[in-house]
Amino acid sequence: QVIHLADYRPTDFVLERVDLTFELDPTETKVEARLIFHRRPGADPAAPIVLDGDELTLSGLLFDQVEMDPSRYDATPESLTVRDLPESAPFELTITTIINPEANTQLMGLYRTSGIYCTQCEAEGFRRITYFLDRPDVLAPFTVNIIADKDANPLLLSNGNFLGGAGYGPGKHFAAWFDPHPKPSYLFALVAGDLGVVEDTFTTLSGREVVLKIYVEHGKEPRATYAMDALKRSMKWDEERFGREYDLDIFMIVAVSDFNMGAMENKGLNVFNDRYVLADPELATDADYANIEAVIAHEYFHNWTGNRITCRDWFQLCLKEGLTVYRDQEFSSDQRSRPVKRIADVRHLKSEQFPEDGGPLAHPVRPTTYREINNFYTRTVYEKGSEVTRMIATLLGKDDFKKGMDLYFDRHDGQAVTIEDFVTCFKDASGRDLTQFSLWYHQAGTPLVTASGSYDAAAGSFTLSLEQMIPATPGQQTKEPMHIPLSLALFGENGGKLEPSSVEGAEYAGEVLHLTGRTQTAVFHGIGSRPVVSINRSFSAPINLHFDQSPADLAHLARHETDHFARWQALTDLALPNLLKAARDAREGKPVVCEATFVETLLAAAADESLEPAFRAQALALPSESDIARELGGNNDPDAIHAGRQAILKQIAEAGKDVFAGLYAAMTTPDDFSPDAKSAGLRALRNTALTYLSHAEQTPARAKAAFDAADNMTDLSHALTILAHRFPDSAQTREALESFRDRFAENALVIDKWFAIQAGIPGAKTLERVRALMDNPLFKRTNPNRMRSLVGTFAFANPTGFGRADGEGYRFLADQILDIDGRNPQLAARILTSMRSWRSLEPVRADHARSALTKIEQAPDLSTDVRDIVERTLKG
Ligand code: ARG
Ligand code: ZN
After folding, report:
1. Are the beta carbons of 58 and 96 closer than 8 angstroms?
2. Which strand (E) or helix (H) includes residue 254?
3. Sorting pLDDT into bands at 50, 70 and 90, what band is 267?
4. Residues 6+ apart with CB under 8 A from 9
5. Whose CA is nearest to atom 10 of ligand 1?
6. Could you provide one GO biological process annotation from this protein's UniProt record (predicted)?
7. CA–CA separation, 827 and 501 (whole Å)
8. For residue 643, what are the contacts with CB-CB under 8 A and spacing of at least 6?
9. What is the ipTM of this complex?
10. Which residues place a Cβ less than 5 A from the ion ligand 2?
């Protein structure tokens, strides 16, 4: 069944109030929902009400407190239809359902994990709890009563403010919560069980005190202090940067270990995958700390962008997600290093979203059809959605962007709105016509901008010709030219900026060039010497740029650009041709040679003490194998890409041996561990140096010594990764893997790393290792984090292992997907997206991939989630 945006219409009934009572039981939870409705004025007076359900059984139905005559309703697992309802008067339906949290392996709706009851309702999980108008444009205040066994569930939590609680018969107690802010069902949450807590308070800008609580497993409280700190910083930042204050007396976060996604922004009661809450130096890497900070902020920021203002329908998902990702990225940029954060975000966008946009699963940021909404929580909706918001900020400038955001909060508070409503606020605030710009929401595919420049010394002018092309994507064969904001600057021979006296042929203001035509020529006047041009600085637009710049010009930018993102981009542009050529040469059995300008420029950056260590670490981390595959475009051989890249790394390592030895010695951090960005940068650069040294030395000795000496998880897991990925069969690696496992066997999040590191070992032999690991007593099929760490890492991040030439990797994945799908369709569908680039493989592998996909497609009883992904992947 396909859902179309064009079919949207409001409900016939308005929901006034929701009153829920849960009698919790592991296998037979009774849910009583009292719903007050009235017919929407103007709606068909004879229309029945049709409520959504999913695997439900109705066990009672009252109309205005009186048992309802069975002739007036029909109940199926998927819906409850009630007829003969009042024409305009309010009426009350009391619906009773019995559900089984223990048996809920999909982890949608109400389920139990490690003895904790918890919920996940976005997008359509509430209908697995009770019959409801389960759509985001139906908003109402909720009262929630929870009754449960007191000993097993001392804690009874729901959204909003606590009303009260008391004993309730022998061994039981109850609690009542009221959320005054009208909300859609996807923001409902309930948690019950026995957990430890970390408490704090935050005083808002207007002086209200908010109680903050983070609930974790008993004994893990100390590991939640970093998350608490990140929460308070988020609250402060949202007040300062966006003028947004928190609006309830209490804000709670609960960490659970079985969770399908990262976290969920339920009103006043966020539920988190515990990997985005728990951290301490012994157990968490710097990347873990950064992720915790970002996800805590993201969910908190949803309180305004998502909860106070929500989506009219699920096609508008980017309204809340793209905007909230933009906000969390800005937060991290302000808390850490802006250029380094931008580099990390762009790397992520290119490695995850670009392949999606360039493959069979490509879809617009604001799609117009879907079969399974869970499959649209994508990099495109989230990360490209953030880029589109960022472009609005670039187009309007700081002040007008702020005015537009203020207008949005003002105009739409309490409403469920659309992307058009959002964009209109920026148009109204700035007076800028955003019609063409809006195509970014509607046209899928990564635009390709081709640029060429020529300098006329006699005229003192520089001419830049630009052309844009947007590739065809499924369902969109032809595209209109878009409005692409290109941050652009010209640099002179001495490295200083050249300011044009005027620019013809394109709007150029505040160093932003507006590309709006399919082709466009801009002439920069008053340019006294041949300029080196820097285009798409800070990655102002999410595009592919083809601009044929000489290695000398790129090296010039790598040294002199004032925008450090653009310096990194220049270094990457120097690296790429070398890596592409290396892959081709390795495939033909030719020797791989690295060009000198590139190596010199890279090593100069590595040794440049005026650059922050985190930046230098990013510069030294070359494009990944999948980045190279994407740039090659088709007929790809993962083994050749790997071999070519390894050869380049070795040459850089040998040429820079002294530089790396120097960095390894110099980049030390104080004994007292701190997860701050500066210390993390020192560790990142030191560990990068270690990687190169082990490429130069070709022995595991140094990595093993680093492993033995490590006193934090960043260093320890980095050393273990070098050992496993570079020297998988050495005695040192075996010993390190065993000691790591024994030391952390009790710690699920660390054991996830142990599985992931091994799943990422390059080469055809890894599949056997992965199979063996699935039989390891530490492996847990039902735990999404564990599944992602082993099967997910193998499929997404191991091109040579997963993509081995005989196709065994793809067949293995097909079997796993079918197995996972029986329990948890959402997880199965997500892991299956690892096949999205199968068409760019060389023909033999592509054939194997197609057969594996076909095997999935032909299996009986596929979930809608997996069916949707597999059919689109094969077809597109
Ligand atoms: N809204 C959540 C977040 O971005 C994610 C919910 C994901 N839901 C899903 N069905 N995949 O923070
Ligand atoms: Zn979100």
Report:
1. yes
2. strand 250-256
3. very high
4. none
5. 374
6. proteolysis
7. 56
8. 583, 586, 592
9. 0.98
10. 321, 324
